[in-house]
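User: Second chain of the day. Same drill as before.
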Amino acid sequence: MYKRQAQDPEALLHLADGADAAQVTRALEARGWQCTGEIPRLGILRCQSIEERQGPIPLRALETLPGVFLAELNGVGEGGGFLALPNDTYLGEQWHHANNGANGGTTGADIQSVEAWDLSEGAATVTIAVLDTGIALGSAEFAGRLVPGYDFVNSDPDPSADHPHGVRVTGLAAANANNQFGVAGVDWRCKILPIKILNQSNLGTVFNLAQGLDHCAVERPEIVSMSLINYPATFSLRTALRRAREAGCILISCGGNSGAGSVAFPGASEDTITIAASDRRDNRASFSSFASEVDFIAPGVDLGTVVGGPTDTFMTFSGCSAATPVAAGIVGLLMARHPILSQDQAYELLRLGAEDQVGRPSEDVAGYDVYHGHGRLNAYQSLLALEQDPTRIGYFCTPAQVNSSGRAAKISARGTVALGPDDLTLQAVSLPPGEFGFFVMGTGQDAMTPPGSNGPLCITGGTLVRILPSILSSGQTGAFELPIGTTNVPGHGPFQAGDTWGFQAWFRDAGSSNFTDALALTFE
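Assistant: Same format as last time:
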């Protein structure tokens, strides 16, 4: 009897709620299939035919099995980087840390790592998980930083790399610094969780990636770096990504290397922060994919990183795979200073620090664009945003619920009669002359651009709907309440108990282009 090999086509079965995996397995065997792997927490079985079969896998037939609600192919993705020849071993050669204009570069086209390290070098309380081909366990560049990982390709606890992609990626995010060896990662101090989900050919299955994400949902590393492209956007991966994010992991992925107007998966997922790649002139790399899913751009061409052996040298590395761990390292520096950042809050800090209109004028227009997202990441500027005003790390969300007194829950916002350094704490009921706007959002991700501003002030949770007049005269009250059940939101319907709505309020002085924080928001 012919038995299929691991590289042969496989199916992933998603179990219905309450289904018994053992019963499904027995039903599979009765039809000439075998279960070759399981992710119990996600309700996923990997299976393949015991006997050789001609033609495509009969997914619809597999869905008729009792206890199965969805069958899909176990597709394949790959790592998203390009290897180059070795180069010198000095920090000065890593232009993404500090670009002095050498080799045709543009001075300042970097993430300002040197200045950022004065504020944060990272912290051992933060863990970056790298889902890739594995790690060089004996490398001096990772000494003292590794936590026990796992190899989901070979199903063993040894995540040693058999392809260099994972070593290069991890080096950019977190190589040791000040060790008189090789290069410096963006984050010097974080712990590293190596999770091998790509094989010796730099390829990996949907099932292995879902396993890796499921592992992260359990282990809960603060940051998950995925330099991965060209996976199918399956239900399996969407579920695994969502579960990992719900577990508190900040998910960072790359946009792709096709150079075309589409973003590769998992970067195309709404659950990841998606990174494009720029060169040493601050231009979008020719290979860097572009589309509305791109959130930011980061250096990703000819970056010096770890080789992995005992020789004091390094390799240059290019691709969205290079840009992604740079972004992950920046988030690591932020979390060293504020260890309970959510993904939305990390996103907002990255946006506040990003540099806009630094690339080609035809692509890098004012505000958000599909080539650069909100701009080229800047670690120093994002850390400054956190240090100077730690309250600016996200938008407010509240669940609408009936309170203990029986009255409908409500969202209240009140302006201040006198603008000052403590605007956010004042609770007056009038606004001075100016413009006032209040918006509610559903799901998705959009940027708010108030009238007269130079670009989005912050990222919100969905489609923006203004529900109050924009002009208030001097002395007119600025207080209002929005009770659930009676307040109708255009395009969305009324607030309902149990709903969660993001919302945002802003105020601008009359005749001024400067927006202030002269609002206090309260929940009752």
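Residues 508 and 514 are 6 Å apart (CA to CA).

User: Great, on to the next one.
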